[in-house]
Amino acid sequence: MPRYVIERNFAEKLEVDDDAKKHIKQVNDAEGVEWIFSFLSADKRKTYCLYEAPDEDSLRRAAERLNIPADVITPVDRIDPGIFA
């Protein structure tokens, strides 16, 4: 499945409780996307999230349903140091 990085900018510090995590999972499952992991900036106002999804539209629909930004969606491929060995 294709992978994407989503850059999200938040007006307030990001805080996610257990109920929010469950809701995120339910919406993502319904849209066919899988949140793999995220990096959170030190000020807790920006994230870079790695997802697997069928397409960008499914990521945008999930973000809209969750009322969270999806400022930049970038298709990515995985590389790691092993390719240089």
Question: Overview of this structure, please?
Answer:
By secondary structure, the protein is of the alpha+beta class. It has a single domain, classed as 2-Layer Sandwich (Alpha-Beta Plaits), CATH 3.30.70.3090. It contains two helices and four strands. The protein has a four-stranded antiparallel sheet with strand order 2-3-1-4, with helices on one face. The mean pLDDT is 93. It comes from Roseovarius marisflavi. This is DUF4242 domain-containing protein. InterPro entries: SCO4226, SCO4226-like.
Class by alpha and beta content: alpha+beta
What kind of sheet is the major sheet?
Answer: 4 strands, antiparallel
**Tally the helices: what do you get?**
2
Q: Runs with pLDDT <50, length 5+?
A: none
The arrangement of helices and strands along the chain is EHEEHE
Name of the CATH architecture: 2-Layer Sandwich
Helix content: 25-40%
Distance between the termini: 26 Å
User: Quick one: overall form?
Assistant: globular
Fraction in beta strands: 25-35%
Within the CATH hierarchy, at the fold level, what is the topology?
Answer: Alpha-Beta Plaits
CATH class: Alpha Beta
Using the CA coordinates, give the radius of gyration.
14 Å
| CATH homologous superfamily caption | ORF SCO4226, nickel-binding ferredoxin-like monomer
Beta strand count: 4
- Mean pLDDT across the residues is 93
Number of domains: 1
Widest sheet: strand ordering: 2-3-1-4
